[in-house]
Design a protein that fits this description.
Strand order of the largest sheet: 3-4-5-8-7
CATH class of one domain: Mainly Beta
Radius of gyration: 38 Å
Strand content: 5-15%
Number of strands: 19
Largest sheet: 5 strands, antiparallel
Structural class: alpha+beta
């Protein structure tokens, strides 16, 4: 009879009746009663009142009844902990039952009862079961240890269960081994710091032996464990791969994916020249293809994993394009994933086949799928250059279908094709313009507007087309508004006489009628550019655009490597690391692929320091930039202080502490030879890589101009860059900056196609020329290079200020590192200030803007110090002797025009020097890229006055308006001004003057920029409308 009868009872007083049946003397009646209780419990009825009666039923030899009672106990023990204690004696007794099934059942149930009072009674039975003669009991006990650890980790460690669990890895039964590995892995995941799975070649051999004989889930546990093992060399990696490969033919897709994960990880250690490497690639393809014949849900999981595999090693499936062609009955989620994989596998060899297929998809009825197919055609054009013409032709055919959403998607991708191949396919613009009226989606309208603006000179009625969009400007989305603004400004710069009214109209709409801050900001920028310097505006707006990359949606290489380690898990389906969607310690566990063979660093201990020395200072991975525009008045150039601070404390400084991380990088002593990239700024402690280095006290070298060059240090170790090691230093020779590099290939493959790029930094450091590596870099070969630098790059304040983030690309990958450059390479040759100017400037800077610190172990005379520092463009302005102390007054100038003034005290016979330095805070506040200044201010003046101020304004007023420096300015240098008033010098030593004009004028403080006036004075110009106030 079916068990459904237990769920259909309609009797009243059911609990009472069940109680009576549970206490019946008849075994069958008792079993029926327990089944009814379990049925009630399953449908959500509260039967906890029957707890004592059900527990009494435990005393039976009937295995079925015992299982039912144990099921009830697991459910209600937490709500009835005191009653649950009654069952402990029975559990202990059952753990010694002659029947191994009952012994296993007892220990499993005790592990599932999450009650603290019971766990202490569980220890002794569990210890016996872990050493039970029956493997079924041992494998059940192994899992129970993991459950107990989750309840009370300390108890498990104290009782020595973890050591027993490790011993079970050597068990003769493969299922016991598999469960022991599963339990240890579970515990290790919740405690990442513990080294429970201390795998070695012997234990790996035992796991591989058990792999062939255990169940499919046991195989998955073992394969996942193998994936966390780091082979000592390529031979061991190959041996493991050979023994794992048979799992690829398993019927269970989870086993297949786990085996693929192990092979993908260990392939990193195999040389591509090996015959076995090619064989392995061929063996990986068939199982992945077979997964695509499963149910749609499994296909989707397989496709998400294949997407990762193809990004890492496209050669595995390069001949299997046809299996990814979409079937008519595939669900949409499978279709979209197949499209993605098709694009990744597209190449010159199969592009004709792919395009024909995609064109067919574009006529389907599923709108989302059609859109994706049209976009895929565009991605093919960008990826395979030889197919671009055919792709454009296909897109034009689709536009002719006049299907609205097809036309709009086609226009979006044609815009991308124009970005990739400028001035090549512009003949199609006429066809695109014919469909202008049918565009109703923001992305398509924005793409069409971009095309019209970019090629305005080739479109006769470009102004009419853009004006048609302008009519409903406020109804458009922000994306379209921004694109329309830029397009009309481009049109104005190309055809200024015909479109002046149009550009004034769009600027007015953007700045005065819009409440969108992005649109207003862009409008103001364009207006100011056009009103002040149309030539500069043309250079900015019509600048040559970089070509778009062939693959914009590739996963970042470091993340891809991590996801490869999670093949067959949820992370590989989400394409996100576990930390993105798992809370707690499990999500914090990071995995990475092993380093390639050939790296000089040990694969097992990549961070070991060289023997006999201090730990090597490794450059940090580029940090995530938080608030880069920090508080200027509390900015410290020095890196984090290591060690205890000295006895002397520095005077807090109102401006940037240019001395804290600058001059201290120029002095030090012979007792420390830390690389110049590491610059401790704590006072009273020995300073390495600093002024002492300029005096050749720590083994550096001098350049032609006498400037100190620090020894080369390792910036990017080979273990972090797939075998590429980069060492280097910075130098300044006769006014020219350079980065001196040594590139070393410690991998087993040739490296070529080198390129370098800097991130934005505090002083605009950028390569002045490409990285020239004239010949491919063979394994175990090094090459020395000198990369010229300039300071005209993008500026952004870094922390610390002299932090430089670098990206180096080669044929293998893109690698990132950061280093600290010595500040003295930025000291320019014209940094000697006149004496009167020095005196006036020193007095003008408040005492709170002063830094003072000591430098030890520099046993040089004042003349020697002066000579040495002058070699690095630190100039002595004056020297005097006060109470037996030599006082040197020095100045230096940075490449961005900031002056630093210093006083150096030298006591003859005392190797310690005292440095006192000052920086004008106003110069720092004029650096808009460092997070201050740059906000426009308007001051309207009537003839002969400056705003409403009568008579010469005070210095404080001048500072509140902006830092003025307009000496030697001629009337024709003021935009449109024809009446230059008088100029009265208030602070000639600081270069400040008061200027009044006979005509109304407007004043904009744009901050200090190299080679330009810090103040922009503009009057109405007939060529362009008057600039409005912000």
């Amino acid at each position: 009879m079916s068990d459904s009868k237990y769920f259909t009872t309609t009797k009243k007083g059911e609990i009472f009746e069940l109680k009576a049946e549970l206490n019946s003397d008849k075994k069958e009646k008792k079993k029926e009663a327990v089944k009814k209780v379990i049925a009630s419990m399953t449908v959500g009825k509260d039967v906890s009142a029957l707890f004592p009666d059900v527990v009494n039923c435990m005393q039976t030899d009937n295995l079925e009844l015992k299982k039912l009672v144990y099921l009830y106990l697991m459910n209600y023990a937490k709500s009835q902990p005191d009653m649950a204690i009654m069952a402990v004696n029975t559990f202990v007794k059952d753990c010694e039952d002659p029947n191994p099934l009952i012994r296993a059942l007892a220990v499993r149930t005790m592990g599932c009862i999450r009650v603290d009072k019971i766990t202490e009674y569980l220890c002794e039975p569990l210890r016996k079961c872990l050493k039970d003669e029956d493997p079924y009991v041992r494998k059940t006990a192994a899992v129970c240890v993991a459950k107990l650890h989750d309840i009370n980790a300390q108890l498990v460690e104290d009782q020595g269960f973890l050591d027993t669990l490790k011993d079970l890895i050597s068990d003769s039964n493969p299922m016991v081994v598999a469960n022991a590995v599963a339990a240890l892995s579970e515990i290790a995941e919740s405690h990442p710091s513990s080294n429970l799975l201390d795998l070695n070649p012997q234990s790996i051999n035992k796991l591989l032996t058990a792999l062939n004989e255990c169940t499919e889930w046991g195989q998955i546990f073992i394969l996942d464990c193998l994936a966390n093992y780091m082979p000592k060399d390529d031979r061991e990696a190959q041996s493991v791969c050979e023994r794992v490969t048979p799992r690829l033919s398993h019927a269970n897709s989870a086993v297949v994916l786990s085996a693929v994960k192990v092979l993908m990880k260990f392939m990193e250690m195999l040389s591509k020249d090996l015959d076995y490497y090619g064989t392995l690639l061929k063996k990986l393809a068939p199982p992945l293809v077979t997964l695509l014949s499963a149910e749609p849900e499994l296909q989707y999981v397989a496709l998400r994993n294949i997407n990762l595999i193809v990004q890492k090693r496209p050669e595995i499936l390069k001949h299997e394009m046809k299996v990814f062609f979409v079937k008519y009955n595939d669900p949409i989620y499978v279709k979209l994933e197949k499209l993605d994989v098709m694009i990744r596998l597209a190449s010159q060899a199969n592009i004709a086949q792919v395009l024909a297929e995609l064109k067919e998809y574009a006529t389907e009825v599923d709108v989302d799928f059609v859109r994706k197919a049209v976009r895929a055609i565009g991605r093919c054009a960008i990826k395979v250059e030889q197919s671009a013409e055919r792709c454009v032709s296909t897109l034009l055919d689709l536009i002719q279908t006049k299907v609205n959403y097809v036309v709009q998607e086609a226009i979006v991708v044609i815009k991308d094709i124009f970005r990739k191949y400028p001035n090549k396919y512009e003949s199609v613009i006429a066809t695109l313009c014919e469909n202008l009226d049918s565009l109703d989606e923001p992305e398509a309208r924005a793409a069409m507007i971009w095309i019209v603006g970019e090629y305005a000179e080739r479109i006769d009625n470009a102004d009419e087309l853009l004006e048609s969009f302008l009519e409903g400007f406020h109804d458009e989305s922000t994306q379209v508004q921004l694109q329309l603004l830029t397009a009309i400004v481009k049109l104005f710069l190309k055809k200024p006489t015909e479109t002046q009214e149009l550009v004034q109209q769009v600027l007015s709409l953007a700045t005065q009628d819009s409440d969108n801050p992005d649109l207003r900001d862009r409008g103001y920028i364009y207006w100011r550019l056009l009103s002040t310097d149309p030539v500069a505006a043309k250079e900015v707006v019509l600048a040559e655009k970089p070509l778009i990359s062939e693959e914009t949606d590739l996963i970042e290489p470091t993340l891809l490597d991590e996801l490869i380690c999670y093949i067959g898990t949820l992370a590989s389906v989400y394409h996100k690391p576990p930390s993105a969607f798992v809370e707690g310690s499990r999500g914090a566990l990071h995995r990475s692929l092993p380093p390639r063979t050939g790296s000089s660093e040990s694969a097992e201990s990549p961070d070991l320091a060289p023997s006999g020395g201090a730990p090597a200072e490794q450059p940090a991975v580029i940090p995530t930039q938080g608030d880069l525009l920090g508080d200027l008045l509390n900015l410290d150039l020095g890196p984090p202080v290591s060690g205890a601070p000295g006895a002397t404390s520095s005077v807090p400084m109102g401006g940037v502490d240019l001395l804290g991380g600058g001059l201290d990088s120029l002095m030090g002593g012979p007792s420390f030879s830390a690389p110049s990239a590491v610059m401790p700024s704590n006072l009273g402690a020995p300073l390495g890589g600093g002024l002492g280095d300029l005096f050749d006290l720590s083994g550096g070298v001098g350049t032609l101009s006498g400037s100190y060059v620090a020894p080369k240090t390792v910036w990017l170790p080979a273990v972090k860059a797939k075998g590429l090691e980069i060492s280097g230093t910075f130098s300044r020779q006769v006014g020219a900056l350079s980065m001196d590099l040594v590139l070393s290939n410690k991998a087993l493959q040739v490296m070529s196609d080198f390129a370098i790029q800097f991130n934005r930094n505090s002083f605009g450091l950028a390569p002045a020329a490409p990285l020239q590596v004239h010949a491919p870099l063979a394994p175990n070969q090094s090459v020395e290079l000198s990369l010229p630098l300039n300071t005209v790059g993008s500026v952004m304040k870094m922390d610390p200020l002299n932090n430089l983030q670098v990206a180096v690309k080669n044929n293998i990958d893109v690698f990132y590192f950061s280093t600290l450059y010595p500040l003295h390479i930025l000291f320019v040759e014209d940094g000697k200030m006149e004496r009167q100017m020095f005196l006036a400037t020193w007095k003008d800077i408040p005492n709170e803007n002063e830094a003072q610190f000591q430098i030890k172990d520099c046993p040089l005379s004042a003349d020697a110090v002066s000579t040495k520092l002058q070699g690095s463009n630190i100039f002595t302005i004056a020297k005097r002797n006060v109470e037996g102390q030599d006082m040197l007054y020095q100045s230096l100038k940075l490449t961005n025009g900031i002056w630093v003034l210093a006083e150096l005290r030298i006591q003859p016979g005392n190797p310690s020097l005292t440095v006192r330095g000052r920086v004008d805070p106003q110069a720092l506040l004029s650096m808009p890229s460092w997070g201050a200044g740059g906000s426009p201010k308007e001051v309207m003046g009537s003839p002969g006055t400056l705003g409403k101020i009568k008579g010469p304004p005070s210095p404080q007023f001048i500072r509140s308006v902006g830092l003025w420096k307009v000496e030697g300015l001629q009337p024709n240098q003021i935009n449109g001004a024809d009446d230059f008033g008088r100029a009265k010098s208030l602070r000639p030593t600081l270069g400040m003057v008061w200027v009044s004009f006979g005509a109304p004028f407007q004043l904009y403080n744009h901050g200090l920029t190299k080679g330009r006036l810090p103040l922009l004075l503009s009057c109405p110009s007939p060529a362009f409308p008057q600039m409005p106030g912000p």
